[in-house]
Every structure is written in structure tokens, then in C-alpha cells.
């Protein structure tokens, strides 16, 4: 059983191991992460297991016509698409994937696998297999892929309501659009419109009248690249079949979705699949839904023994990425600054498979509307197949991409109107009781406090000198609908075991559950133990994503504690948040509670080299009530560090669909040396409810920096803001982008 | 896998002469990456970890740096910081402390990686490498040692034993331009060292090897902004630039002119 970690820092008091049954005690006062006392997914092994290596496509699109395997040793087990004929297709929102494919759709797609007694044997065996291909034309950029007549990545669209994260899909036949999401506020509904707008300048906009009352319009296009999650621990899975049951131990944020999808793939009852989730060394969205689990389970079935799969670093880079995007924003305002209307077109590059791209596209759509009032809003989000590696969940979940564009556009509007950028925001903010574009009425709205706090952090004075300063305010939704269950069991020794499927990714879920249970049960924290997620032992939870766990699980746990007091030894708790949006009008409940945040930056730009020097990078996230102050601060800091890398460094590059920088030398993330300017606040209010804050501070960071850079005349549209992009944005220099192609 | 652990330079060069396929490992920060990425494979390896004579450093007269002296020692040594501040700065600019604690003087030259910090400063400082083999010892200016991408003028059986940096007579400046993380390698690396009335400007990390143009440097008028600008522009125009994740060739051409000018103005202060 996995030992859970403590978030406590030396000096904060003694650290505890809150420990699954059988865990050894942690060294007191020292973080068990540092002393290597945590057993991660990658440390889990099963005696007698063999090792899996995946053989990956070297072409971005085509057919596998044959394998040369003559050099393989006799004991090596070789798997191909022939071995998956009895398996069902899968995909958390669209069932468009097979476990091994004959028709690879990106460089890195799994086309075969070898299983051998040692990891080294498997690696050698994989290198001895030669593959024959027949290539077909491919398409990589989202705007190329949505263009009329573009090569189709999938010959037809798939739908399936049995998938673990399904909602109403709107695939567009004859195009690469696997889901189209729209928001239309009431006056804009029911118009005769084309289903797909495949270009960035649409002269025949059927909704142009929404801007009739606007004196000034800003209409601009922005771009974000693919990016890597870079969890320190790679994907690691062990699979074993026991008496017809499948047991998988794996690093996943989605244990119950995993169980459902594996059961579907192998034609099993959900109860015949067990998913156990040890502590993870980071995930950031990379460990959601089926990754290495199905192929490892298949290999274990064929080998008749346990099988282990651990990805290499370059494979982690290729496994799933952040969606590249092109976002066009059209914002209209009256001369006095009152916002009138907003249109958003979000083109979301989901790569070869949908994964949760439809959900990302939807969230990208409404997050870009922002915490502002409008008479009219229309959003069109397109989730588009291409021949790049699949995009998936990524800390910020689509919000970053559209907020980058939307909050830059607010500053452009302020410039055009000659109104202070903070005042323009304040003038249009959503307040308690205002209606969002989805029809939801805002509650617990804190946008003005957040805006003021971020502005104060960089010494923003109304109509003062704003050179080198940028301020941003955002909203971001939480997974809705979703469910959380928790169970608390009184153990024979008098301690209480918390049984919950919230996975500890490194965010301190175990700490959160321990503290909350102790509070609700009115006992000391050392009387509470937490069971690692195990689908045989813990009750259902939607997943550990979307910054929902503390908000949802805290209430399920409170419910369980109340139930325990009634029933004596076992207490069950259950909460759900209902809602969802109509895919054609975007009306409904986008989010049962809103993540609200702000950020600001103060910086200099070297006008000869384009290098940005940050003196302050600040973010404020609304938390309501904080459970674990230190853990909350770490989450806020971590989000800002990711936002900083996103803003300045991070970009996956491709040449003909082949990733050219899948390593940590050629792909830079922010290091300890880059974060000295970071300051932040977790905003609490007396009597506030528990809000999630695992990613709130990611999306506002890039536009806060971008807005500050723009005050020097550098109008950067593409992330990351590399020095040469900064220079080119003012000087119009034709510095070509670094190796790799422009996705547009 | 077999590790040979010689304890003297004589042992090393003899072992290497007998096993020309066995890589020599100094700090392992570069070879370690190549091995992890599957780019280097070998059954036999030669470690320099026990060759204590390679860890010696002396600063009487010229600076004599054994091949196994780490970046971190050069960065922190009081005498190096006082007398050879440009050298200390260039080694301090490399990666992070955990890399600098392992990476060595011999290793960074033998790798001849275009994107390293120290080579441009060593060339600008007129540093000379001492190279041993079973055939004896020879001296090669660092300027003639690194001849292209990951290639040196060394023979297969040769070992860098130490590097000698003359005592400078003027100011030295190292300018590292980072376009991404502060832990990143340079997008351009400009070293300028004043020797009497003349200056040696060397530009690294933008092409296959460090570049020095003596005829351009000879035009220098100390403290004259126009002179510094002209030299910068001349350097910018003479180099054949590479594109990589740290910057395009066009961007590098632009910033080399700026960085050379800034380095020249800094050494003239």
C-alpha cells in the first residue's frame, strides 16, 4: 500500500505519514518527497512481470503494410493490430482510438509492441523490428485542417455515449471538426448560419448586428502552441489478470473513468476491473483517461503474466500535449467604455484523437468571454483533428488559450478608447446577481476585489504611468456536472479511514482529506488515515481534475462524517453538481462554482534584444476558505510557474509532424532561477465556501505579461513571447521562427 | 560494462591507446545525456575520477587548470575571481550548481559543444590546452582546438590534461544572452578580453565553433561607441549562423552585433 506524503515543510512542525494501512512512518520533520520515502507509481512492481515497449509510427499518416521480425528472440512476445480485433474502440469523449492501429495518424502512434523478460531486452527487441509503411497526405495546423477540402484525419466521425466523459457532441461530417460548440445569447439564437467558419476573416458574419451599438471594435487573432506537461515521473503502469479480472496499478488522475473505459475495451463488467493509484510524481493533466493502461493490459493478457510499462521521457512528450490553438476575438464597446458585444472563434488543434478535446474546446469558448457584462455574446469553438500527437487535459484546460487572447484584447480596447485598462475592466465586471453569457446568475463574485488587488501589487494608479505594467482578471469553470462520493470507516483500533478516489498527484490530496476529516469528525489528525484510490475499496468520484477535488470532496466528506455519526461505524457521503451546456446555444450551467483570479506584471524589455526582465509577477486566486494554507500557496505558486513557462519559454516544435524538441534541453520549463519575481495571494473571506485553486493562476499570467510588454509597443500575438517574437512585434522584423513550422 | 579506473595520466593514455573505443569520462554531464538518449554505447569506459593530478589548479603566474577541475571551483575560487574574473564569470554562467559541481574544464573543451559558455572566454583569454598521449605532450591554443560541431583537432588517443590561461593585463567581460530559462544554454556567448592596447572579441554559441576576427579587433578604439558598433556589425556579418530552439539565424545575427558592441563598451570602462 502506498504511503501518502505530507506537504509540511521543515519548520512548519513535524511531518506525518498519513499512511495507508501498513505504511512506515516518515522521518519526522523532513518532507518524505526529499527523503525518497514515497512509493510512486513507477516504484510499483509485481514479481514475475515482463516489460513492454511500444513500437511507434515513424510517419504522420498512412498504413502499416508489414513488420520484419526475423531478428526477435523466440521468447519475445510481439503484438500488433491483429491482437486487438476482439477489443472495443475507446476515447473518453469520442471512441476514435484502437489499442494498436494499422493506420497511424501521428508520428508516435502505437502500431505494435514487444514484451520481454527485462526492460533492456524489450528495448533491444523493439529496435530490431522493422516496419513497412504506405504514407498518405497529412495535415498539421488547425486552420489548414479546417479549410474546405482538407485531408480528413478520420474517414468518418465516431460517437459513443458510453464513454467516460461524454457529453453532447456536434461532429461536422465531411470535415476534421469532431465537435462544434456554440454560445448564442438570446437575441442571437435561431439565425441561419454556416455550421463551420473555416477562416479568420468572415465578411458574411450573420451576427454582425450584435455590434450595432458599438462605437469601437477590436478584432484580433492570437495563437498558442502545443506544450508539454513535463511531470517529473513518467507514465508507469503494471497490469495483471487474476481469475478473469483485470488489475491495473497506474498513475492516473481518473481511476473510475479508467475502470469504465478498460471494462468497455475488454468487454468486462466494471466490477471485473480494479484500478489502484499510488502516489504520482506530477501529472498536470497528462495522466488522465487511457494512456499506457490498455496496451499494458492487452500485453498481460497475451503474455499470461504481469506486464509493466514505463514511458521514456520523449514518449511522455508525445503521449499527450496541450492543444495548440488559434483564437479570434471581436470585442465591441461604446465610446464611454461600456462593453456591447463579444464574438470568439476558437480553433482547437486536438491532434490525431479527440481525447477530451471537445471538453477543452467548450471551456476555451466560454472562458474567453471573461468576467464581464455584454448585451450579446457569440462563441464558436471547433475541436479539430490533425496529424499531431493528441491534445488532452492540461492544467488550465483551454482557459489559458482563450484568456491569452481575450485579456490582450481588453487592453487593446482600452488603448483605442483612451481609457485606463484597469478602469475599463472595472466598469464592465460581472457582479453578484449579474447574468453570464450562459444564462447563469453569478454568485460569490469577487472579481473587483481580485482586480484591485492585482493592480495594487504593481503600483497601478488610475491614469498613472502604466509603462511596463499589465493587469488581468479572469474566470474559469469547474467540471460540471460531476459527482463525488466519500466513505469514512471507523477502524477496530479507533482510527478513522477515509476512502475517497481523489488521487494524490503531488497537490496534497491526502493532506486535504486528512485535515478535513479530522475537522468534521472533531478528532486529531493522527486519528485519520487515508486509503489510496482503489476502485475495489473506495467509492465513485468523477476524477481528480479541473481543480474540483477540494470543492467537491470536502462536501462529500462532510456528508460522510454526518452519516457516520448516525450509523456508528461507516459513513457514506455523496454530492453532485448538476448542469452542462447546450452545445448549440451554450445556455445552461457551465460551472457550479467559478474559479476567479487575477494577475499583474511589471517588467522591462531590452529594446535591442527583445529580452523581458520581470521585476514583479503577481497572482491572486479566490479560495473562499483555505483548508491547508501552505498547500494552497504551493498550488498558486506552481500555477504561476507553469504560466511563466507558458508565457516565455514553452513550445513544442514539429517538422512534418515529427516533434523536434521532446527533451528537457531543447524544451525549456521555468527553473528555480526564473521565479524570483513571483509573489502571490490566496484570497480568503470570512465564512467563504471551499473553492478549488489548483490552476486558477495559470491563465492570467501570460496576458498580464503580454499586456505589460505591449505598453512598450510590442504587440505580441503568439506564445511563447520569445525575445525575437517581441522584437518582431514592434519592428516588423522578419525574424523567422525557430526550427519548426508555423502551425498557421 | 567495464569501468577502467586509472590513477595517473600515464595510465589513462596507455589504457586509451589500448582501447580506442572506450570513451573517457570526466564529469559525465555531457556523456551521461548521450548515453541516456542512446547516442553513445560502449562496453568499456575509462573514468578520470581517480586521477588526482588532473584536479590541481595553480595561479602563480598563469592560471593552470587541471582537466578535472570543476566549473564550480573556477566559479568560486577567490584568486580566479580576482585575477581572471572573465573566466570565473563564463564558468559561473553554465547551467545550474548541480551541473557545475560535476562538469570539468577538460570535458567542456573535449565535447566541443557549440552551445557551451566557457570556450569563447578561453579563446578570448589566449588559453592553451596541454594534450597528452603515449607519444608525448603537446600544446594547442584553444582557438585551434575546437574546429567545428563536436569536433576538435585532437587525435583519438589524446587526453586534455590541463589548460593554461595567461594572466590578463586588461579587463574581461563575458556576456551570455539567454532567450529562455535562466538555466538555458546561451543563444549567443560573447567574450571580450583586453590585452594591453588590443582586445580579443570571441563569439560563441551561434555557429559551429567560437569565432575570433583579429583584423576586425585591431580596428578597436577603446571607449569609442562608433568603433564598438562597427566591430559589432562586422562580427555580425562575418559569421554563418545556425537556427535552433534558442533563436533563429536572423535573430542571432541581430543580437551578435548588439552584444559585441555592449561587451566592447563594458571592457573600456
UniProtKB/TrEMBL annotation, chain A:
It comes from the Bacteria. Keywords: Molybdenum, Oxidoreductase. SUPFAM superfamilies: CO dehydrogenase molybdoprotein N-domain-like, Molybdenum cofactor-binding domain. SMART domains: Ald_Xan_dh_C. InterPro entries: Ald_Oxase/Xan_DH_a/b, Ald_Oxase/Xan_DH_a/b_sf, Ald_Oxase/xanthine_DH-like, AldOxase/xan_DH_MoCoBD1, AldOxase/xan_DH_MoCoBD2, AldOxase/xan_DH_Mopterin-bd_sf. Residues 35-137 form the Aldehyde oxidase/xanthine dehydrogenase a/b hammerhead domain. Residues 1-26 are annotated as: Disordered. This is Xanthine dehydrogenase family protein molybdopterin-binding subunit. It comes from Nocardioides pini. The lineage of its organism: Bacteria, Bacillati, Actinomycetota, Actinomycetes, Propionibacteriales.
UniProtKB/TrEMBL annotation, chain B:
It holds the Pfam family CO_deh_flav_C. It comes from Nocardioides pini. Keywords: FAD, Flavoprotein, Oxidoreductase. This is FAD binding domain-containing protein. Residues 1-170 form the FAD-binding PCMH-type domain. Gene3D superfamilies: 3.30.465.10, CO dehydrogenase flavoprotein, C-terminal domain (3.30.390.50), Uridine Diphospho-n-acetylenolpyruvylglucosamine Reductase, domain 2 (3.30.43.10). SMART domains: CO_deh_flav_C (SM01092).
Amino acid at each position: 500500500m502506498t504511503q501518502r506524503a505530507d506537504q509540511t515543510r521543515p519548520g512548519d512542525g513535524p511531518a506525518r505519514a498519513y499512511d495507508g494501512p501498513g505504511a512506515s512512518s516518515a522521518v519526522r520533520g523532513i518532507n518524505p518527497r526529499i527523503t525518497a520515502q514515497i512509493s510512486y507509481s513507477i516504484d510499483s512492481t509485481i514479481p514475475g512481470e515482463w516489460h513492454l515497449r511500444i513500437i511507434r509510427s515513424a510517419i504522420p499518416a498512412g498504413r502499416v503494410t508489414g513488420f520484419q521480425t526475423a531478428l526477435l528472440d523466440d521468447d519475445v512476445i510481439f503484438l500488433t493490430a491483429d491482437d486487438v480485433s476482439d477489443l472495443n474502440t475507446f476515447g473518453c469523449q469520442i471512441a476514435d482510438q484502437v489499442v494498436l492501429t494499422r493506420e497511424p495518424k501521428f508520428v508516435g502512434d502505437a502500431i505494435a509492441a514487444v514484451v520481454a523478460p527485462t526492460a533492456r531486452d524489450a528495448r533491444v527487441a523493439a529496435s530490431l523490428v522493422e516496419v513497412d509503411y504506405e504514407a498518405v497526405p497529412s495535415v498539421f495546423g488547425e486552420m489548414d485542417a479546417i479549410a474546405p477540402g482538407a485531408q480528413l484525419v478520420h474517414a468518418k466521425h465516431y460517437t459513443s455515449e458510453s464513454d467516460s466523459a461524454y457529453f453532447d457532441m456536434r461532429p461536422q461530417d465531411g470535415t476534421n471538426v469532431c465537435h462544434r460548440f456554440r454560445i448564442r445569447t438570446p437575441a442571437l439564437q435561431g439565425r441561419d448560419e454556416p455550421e463551420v467558419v473555416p477562416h479568420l476573416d468572415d465578411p458574411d458574419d450573420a451576427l454582425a448586428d450584435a455590434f450595432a451599438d458599438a462605437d469601437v471594435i477590436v478584432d484580433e487573432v492570437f495563437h498558442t502552441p502545443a506544450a508539454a506537461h513535463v511531470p517529473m515521473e513518467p507514465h508507469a503502469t503494471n497490469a495483471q489478470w487474476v481469475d478473469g479480472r483485470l488489475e491495473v496499478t497506474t498513475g492516473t488522475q481518473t481511476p473510475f473513468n479508467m475502470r469504465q473505459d478498460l471494462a468497455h475495451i475488454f468487454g468486462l463488467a466494471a466490477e471485473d476491473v480494479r484500478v489502484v493509484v499510488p502516489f504520482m510524481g506530477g501529472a498536470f493533466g497528462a495522466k488522465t483517461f487511457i494512456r499506457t493502461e490498455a496496451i499494458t493490459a492487452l500485453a498481460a493478457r497475451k503474455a499470461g503474466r504481469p506486464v509493466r510499462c514505463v514511458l521514456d521521457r520523449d514518449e511522455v512528450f508525445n503521449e499527450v500535449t496541450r492543444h495548440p490553438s488559434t483564437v479570434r476575438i471581436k470585442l465591441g464597446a461604446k465610446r464611454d467604455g461600456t462593453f456591447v458585444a463579444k464574438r470568439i472563434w476558437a480553433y482547437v488543434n486536438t491532434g490525431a484523437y479527440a481525447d477530451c478535446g471537445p471538453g477543452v474546446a467548450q471551456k476555451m469558448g466560454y472562458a474567453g468571454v471573461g468576467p464581464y457584462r455584454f448585451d450579446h455574446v457569440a462563441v464558436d469553438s471547433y475541436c479539430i483533428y490533425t496529424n499531431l500527437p493528441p491534445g488532452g487535459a492540461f492544467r488550465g484546460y483551454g482557459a489559458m488559450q482563450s484568456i491569452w487572447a481575450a485579456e490582450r484584447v481588453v487592453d487593446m480596447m482600452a488603448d483605442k478608447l483612451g481609457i485606463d485598462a484597469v478602469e475599463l475592466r472595472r466598469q464592465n465586471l460581472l457582479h453578484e446577481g449579474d447574468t453570464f453569457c450562459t444564462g447563469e446568475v453569478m454568485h460569490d463574485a469577487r472579481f473587483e476585489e481580485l482586480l484591485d488587488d492585482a493592480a495594487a501589487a504593481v503600483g497601478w494608479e488610475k491614469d498613472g504611468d502604466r509603462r511596463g505594467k499589465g493587469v488581468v482578471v479572469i474566470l474559469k469553470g469547474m467540471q460540471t456536472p460531476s459527482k463525488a462520493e466519500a466513505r469514512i470507516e471507523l477502524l477496530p483500533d479507533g482510527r478513522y479511514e477515509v476512502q475517497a478516489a481523489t488521487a494524490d498527484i503531488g497537490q496534497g490530496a491526502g493532506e486535504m482529506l486528512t485535515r478535513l476529516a479530522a475537522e468534521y469528525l472533531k478528532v486529531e489528525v493522527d486519528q485519520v488515515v487515508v486509503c489510496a484510490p482503489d476502485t475495489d475499496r473506495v467509492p465513485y468520484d468523477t476524477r481528480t481534475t479541473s481543480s474540483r477535488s477540494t470543492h467537491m470532496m470536502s462536501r462529500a466528506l462532510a456528508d460522510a462524517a454526518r452519516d457516520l455519526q448516525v450509523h456508528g461505524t461507516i459513513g457514506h457521503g455523496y454530492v453532485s453538481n448538476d448542469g452542462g451546456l447546450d452545445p448549440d446555444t451554450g445556455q445552461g450551467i457551465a460551472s457550479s462554482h467559478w474559479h476567479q483570479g487575477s494577475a499583474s506584471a511589471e517588467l522591462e524589455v531590452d529594446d535591442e534584444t527583445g529580452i523581458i526582465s520581470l521585476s514583479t509577477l503577481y497572482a491572486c486566486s479566490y479560495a473562499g476558505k483555505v483548508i491547508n494554507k501552505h498547500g494552497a500557496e504551493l498550488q498558486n505558486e506552481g500555477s504561476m510557474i507553469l504560466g511563466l513557462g507558458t508565457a516565455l519559454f514553452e513550445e513544442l516544435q514539429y517538422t512534418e509532424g515529427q516533434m523536434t524538441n521532446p527533451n528537457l534541453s531543447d524544451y525549456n520549463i521555468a527553473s528555480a532561477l526564473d521565479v524570483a519575481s513571483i509573489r502571490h495571494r490566496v484570497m480568503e473571506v470570512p465564512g467563504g465556501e471551499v473553492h478549488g485553486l489548483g490552476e486558477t493562476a495559470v491563465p492570467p499570467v501570460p496576458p498580464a505579461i503580454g499586456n505589460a510588454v505591449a505598453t512598450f509597443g510590442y504587440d505580441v500575438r503568439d506564445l511563447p513571447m520569445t525575445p525575437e517574437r517581441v522584437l518582431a512585434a514592434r519592428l516588423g522584423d522578419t525574424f523567422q521562427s525557430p526550427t519548426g513550422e508555423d502551425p498557421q | 560494462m567495464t569501468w577502467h579506473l586509472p590513477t595517473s595520466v600515464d595510465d589513462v593514455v596507455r589504457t586509451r591507446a589500448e582501447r580506442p573505443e572506450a570513451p573517457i569520462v570526466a564529469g559525465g554531464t555531457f556523456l551521461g545525456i548521450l548515453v541516456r538518449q542512446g547516442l553513445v554505447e560502449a562496453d568499456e569506459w575509462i573514468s578520470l575520477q581517480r586521477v588526482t593530478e588532473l584536479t590541481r589548479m595553480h595561479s602563480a603566474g598563469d592560471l593552470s587548470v587541471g582537466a578535472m577541475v570543476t566549473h564550480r571551483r573556477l566559479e568560486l575560487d577567490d584568486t580566479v575571481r580576482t585575477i581572471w574574473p572573465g573566466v570565473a564569470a563564463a564558468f559561473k554562467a553554465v547551467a545550474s550548481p548541480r551541473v557545475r559541481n560535476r562538469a570539468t574544464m577538460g570535458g567542456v573543451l573535449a565535447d566541443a559543444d557549440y552551445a557551451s559558455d566557457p570556450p569563447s572566454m578561453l579563446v578570448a583569454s589566449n588559453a592553451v590546452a596541454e594534450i597528452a598521449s603515449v607519444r608525448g605532450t603537446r600544446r594547442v591554443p584553444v582557438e585551434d582546438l575546437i574546429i567545428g560541431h563536436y569536433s576538435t583537432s585532437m587525435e583519438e588517443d589524446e587526453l586534455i590534461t590541463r589548460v593554461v590561461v595567461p594572466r590578463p593585463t586588461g579587463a574581461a567581460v563575458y556576456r551570455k544572452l539567454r532567450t529562455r530559462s535562466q538555466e538555458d544554454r546561451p543563444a549567443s556567448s560573447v567574450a571580450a578580453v583586453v590585452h594591453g592596447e588590443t582586445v580579443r572579441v570571441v563569439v560563441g554559441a551561434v555557429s559551429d565553433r567560437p569565432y575570433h576576427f583579429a583584423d576586425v579587433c585591431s580596428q578597436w578604439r577603446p571607449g569609442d561607441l562608433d568603433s564598438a558598433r562597427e566591430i559589432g556589425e562586422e562580427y555580425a556579418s562575418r559569421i554563418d549562423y545556425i537556427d535552433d530552439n534558442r533563436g533563429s539565424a536572423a535573430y542571432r545575427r541581430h543580437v551578435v552585433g548588439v552584444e559585441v558592441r555592449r561587451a566592447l563598451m563594458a571592457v573600456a570602462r
